[in-house]
Write a structure and sequence with these properties.
2 copies of one chain form a homodimer.
Chain A: H1 33-45, H2 51-60, H3 62-70, H4 77-89, H5 92-105, E1 109-111, H6 137-140, E2 148-150, H7 156-161, E3 163-167, H8 174-189, E4 193-196, H9 202-212, E5 217-221, H10 234-243, E6 245-248, H11 259-271, E7 274-277, H12 285-295, E8 299-302, H13 313-321, E9 326-327, H14 331-338, H15 361-368, E10 375-376, H16 378-385, H17 389-401, E11 405-408, E12 411-414, H18 424-427
Parallel strand pairs in A: 3-4, 3-7, 4-5, 5-6, 7-8, 8-9
Antiparallel strand pairs in A: 1-2, 2-6, 10-12, 11-12
Helix pairs in contact in A: 1-3, 1-5, 2-3, 8-9, 9-10, 11-12, 15-16, 15-17, 16-17
């Protein structure tokens, strides 16, 4: 398909088709407006990712779960407290109804697990995600989303099918911005969707790279899609909304207060096939996304940087401490990790083939035993090379044919090329191979 | 001991004390002048590292091995050819005698495995070294040295006991030079001997760093110690000879023609506890030293660099392809690899402790739910934080005591610090955690 020209969604995109039973959320009952309203209300009552709410929705369906919670029937004390606190703010159902109306006014859509055609299946793996030593609530409550808002003609599932997350520091260096832009461009150019968080720095650079390639990019937000944060990226968000997707678990108008960025990160990690960390300081939120990618079994990739850069300390720590973290230096390495098996394999880094590579052991010894300047007689050369006279003569005629040495009346001489003696130029970058002295 | 002030060697340093049998080379017979002369002659007849010669010396002793080779009794055809070719150059014994005289004139010494006090035991591990896919002669013939020339008051064994090799590209970048100098300085400053090959670029930077720290550095040469190569580093070699050691397997006057640099690299790799590769292009001699360190069971370490730098391509490839290659970013990481067990452990990279780190789950939620500007009433705050009213009030008074929030008549407000709201500064470098919007 041509990913450059997005399908436009019909005006009635909000109207749900009867979804029937969904294997995805184990939801019971058809996906009625009531269920949709309940999912929205539940998302408002308890922050997305709350495990017990997601489990109840699977068991009882959204509407019944909403009734239960509003009746103070939440299983955990802290959740009952949270629901009670929110309820003091307003009536969950009317808040949800307003959100639905606002969503329609925005021309946005709400996607639920009942929309099997559009729900991104990989986020369901969050059911099984366990973060090592996850004692903070944001590390514990990492269930799949109840629903997702999006503002695009793109079917969500299709857009995320071949996707890679590129995340990193907000206070990125020029180096990091350059690398992230290149990655975003190169991945999008190869029809991979570039997913990130829309933050300043690396996130924005990755989005821009993808947009510049005319490719598809998805910004997963930690606030309502009608007021993407940060404001400084407003123009970027507009470009993304035009050709790509803005996605959020939070209803329009929702504020991006800090815990939501960590809650959101689990979706970036789970919805993609792999996460590339470009720059991260010693203590960094980008590493949180990375750890979530690891925990949910996605390919964890890290771009190294100068050891002199504080913005790469976190990246290097991950490479040292996480055996499964893969060092990548560019798009080919990333494709090697996330590409279909067999396809997209990165070629090993190699210097250009040199004529010397064609020489056998003895010919190489003879060549390398030639003086840099002047001529040498065959006896002396054989001695230096440690080969017998016959061999020396045989190899010399070969080297002569290859245009590497020339016979003179008083012996043999190297044929020097502009780049220096044959095959020495690559050696010039080596720390332990040197050329013979002048 | 104070490694800054080297013991001066006696004038008669050349005179061998009766070494008796040596476990090191399994040599038989005492280490007579004849044996010494034979070792020198053998080193000249066949390049150092030749396995069959080393084996014969172990079985028959140096003198008998020399007789055997000169009688055309070398086991391999190529070796017989090499011996014959050299012999056409001159008489092995007289060449060796001249070398001994020249060594004495230089005030240099020859160390053999019979000098159990001074012979560096780790080089003997080269007996067991096997290079994967080693088809070139330099990859096959990697036996321990027959003898080593040195020009220093330092006992060789003592100097190499706590040693690390730092190698890398000759066409190093400013970044690589900086890192190598820092490593050389930091290691020497902690009483580690810095070993390298004396080449331009990374090697020279590592030596200089060690010298600047007033520490000990060893240059293992691929030519005679009386004409260290490259000439461009002559001043550096003089400084090393003064306070450190110049070491070589080749007799004074020997030329550094290319195969010798690879032959030499096995000694750098084996004599040290680990090898740090700082910069290397895709095809690089430094990676050869690295592979030898791997093959002989030393700690293989690699310093990453910008993925945009051709001089780091080889380093990154090693980190990707060699599971045992360890990414290191500085001296603490290197010491962690080579340091005595338990000692020299690198502290994990951490941002400075912040007051926020002392807060529990709920207090953090409450703090993070505070609006950046203005005040908020407790009900709304509790709702945003998802905690009950009682908890919100309890945590607020804690935050108030910590000076993070202030109570106003119309609610609570953040106490903003110069660096921004408490604990937000470190988060500023994160790609996926953002501050609440203004």
């Amino acid at each position: 398909m041509d990913r450059r020209r997005p399908r436009r969604a019909g005006p009635a995109a909000l109207r749900r088709r009867p979804g029937g039973h969904s294997a995805q959320d184990g939801g019971r009952g058809v996906n009625t407006e009531e269920d949709l309203l309940a999912r929205v209300a539940l998302t408002w009552l308890a922050e997305p990712g709350t495990r017990s709410v997601h489990r109840l929705v699977g068991e009882l369906g959204p509407a019944a779960t909403l009734d239960l919670l509003l009746d103070g029937g939440a299983p955990e004390e802290w959740l009952r407290a949270a629901v009670a606190a929110r309820s003091r703010e307003g009536d969950a159902r009317s808040v949800a109804a307003d959100a639905l109306a606002r969503t329609q006014r925005l021309g946005a859509r709400i996607v639920t697990p009942d929309d099997e055609e559009e729900w991104p299946p990989r986020v369901e793996d969050l059911r099984r995600m366990v973060l090592p030593g996850g004692h903070r609530r944001v590390d514990r409550e990492t269930a799949p989303p109840l629903c997702l808002w999006t503002r695009s003609g793109w079917p969500l599932r299709e857009a995320l099918d071949r996707s890679v997350a590129v995340v990193g520091a907000r206070a990125a260096t020029g180096y990091g911005m350059h690398v992230a832009t290149e990655l975003g461009y190169g991945l999008a150019d190869r029809d991979w969707t570039v997913v990130s968080g829309g933050a300043f720095g690396i996130d924005a650079a990755a989005h821009r790279g993808a947009l510049n390639a005319g490719g598809l990019t998805v910004a997963v937000l930690a606030c309502g899609i009608d007021q993407p944060y940060p404001m400084g990226n407003a123009a970027l968000f507009d470009r993304i909304a035009e050709t790509g997707l803005l996605v959020s678990e939070w209803m329009p108008g929702a504020e991006p207060f800090r815990p939501r960025f960590l809650i959101r990160n689990r979706v970036i990690a789970a919805a993609t096939l792999g996460t590339v960390l470009v720059e991260a300081a010693a203590r960094s939120g980008a590493t949180q996304t990375f750890n979530r990618a690891l925990a949910v079994g996605r390919r964890p990739m890290v771009v190294p940087g100068p050891v002199t850069s504080a913005m790469s300390v976190g990246a290097h720590e991950l490479l040292r401490e996480r055996p499964s973290a893969r060092l990548v230096t560019g798009v080919p390495h990333v494709l090697e990790e996330v590409g279909r098996i067999g396809a997209d394999l990165a070629p090993p880094a190699r210097a250009p083939q040199r004529p010397r590579d064609l020489l056998d052991d003895e010919a190489t010894l003879v060549l390398e035993s030639m003086p840099r300047r002047g001529t040498v007689d065959v006896d002396r050369l054989a001695a230096r090379a440690g080969v017998d006279l016959r061999t020396a003569l045989r190899k010399l005629s070969l080297l002569e044919e290859l245009g590497m040495v020339r016979r003179r009346d008083n012996g043999y001489a190297l044929v020097t090329h502009p780049a220096g003696a044959p095959g020495t130029s690559p050696a010039r970058v080596s720390g332990s191979i040197a050329d013979p002295p002048p």
